[in-house]
Write a structure and sequence with these properties.
The chain has 4 helices and 10 strands; from the N terminus they run E-E-E-E-H-H-E-H-E-E-E-E-H-E. It is α/β, with parallel strands linked by helices. The strands form 3 sheets. It has a 6-stranded mixed sheet with strand order 2-3-10-9-5-6, sandwiched between helices. Strands 1-4 form a two-stranded antiparallel sheet. The chain has a two-stranded antiparallel ribbon with strand order 7-8.
């Protein structure tokens, strides 16, 4: 049986950029920005993603820094919501999953939610949910402010493990309706 590992020789220890070992390289996650609306199940909940990871396209890090792409994602989300939510938006609001790393400056998901809320005329509770732990696999969330609406759109820009979604569901499960909308499904 052949081994899958590969030994890489490094003669120039002070020049790590010269190393050409595939096992050490970091492959950037990409999205081709072609809409692929899909329904998924994670645990007890269903969620809808707008886009998916692809082999070519724009890197996730570029996407998350772009105000222009935030507008693009918000427009696509509004188009979807107009088709999905029948009977108007009365009693609905939107929240985003907690910020973990970006407390200051531009935040992609917050920008998208602000644009969606303005377009469909629903409240956006910015920073309504906070994470108590830095544990990405088993996060603990709590509400920073009360949310009076019983129908909530939960927006997350990129879904990887789904643990954020599950923790948000546990926090808001007493609501009449929860719609989990994901920008990019990274599974």
């Amino acid at each position: 049986m052949k081994r899958k590992g590969k030994i890489c020789r490094i003669d120039d220890w002070d020049k790590p950029e010269a190393v050409k070992c595939k096992s050490w390289s970091h492959q950037e996650r990409l999205c081709d920005l072609r809409e692929k609306v899909s329904l998924h199940k994670k645990g007890d909940i269903y969620y809808i993603s707008q886009f998916t990871r692809s082999k070519t396209g724009t890197s996730f890090s570029e996407i998350k820094q772009s105000e222009e792409l935030a507008s693009f994602f918000a427009e696509r989300a509004c188009e979807f919501l107009h088709r999905f939510i029948v009977g108007g938006y009365e009693g609905w609001c939107i929240v985003t999953t907690p910020r973990r790393r970006h407390y200051e400056g531009f935040h992609f998901a917050t920008s998208i939610c602000t644009k969606i809320a303005g377009a469909v005329k629903i409240p956006f509770y910015e920073n309504a949910i906070q994470c108590l732990t830095k544990d990405r696999l088993n996060p603990e969330f709590f509400l920073l402010r009360p949310i009076k609406e019983k129908k909530i759109i939960v927006y997350d820009d990129i879904l990887t493990t789904g643990s954020t979604l599950l923790a948000t569901y546990e926090l808001l499960r007493d609501r009449e309706q929860l719609l989990f909308l994901i920008g990019i499904n990274n599974n």
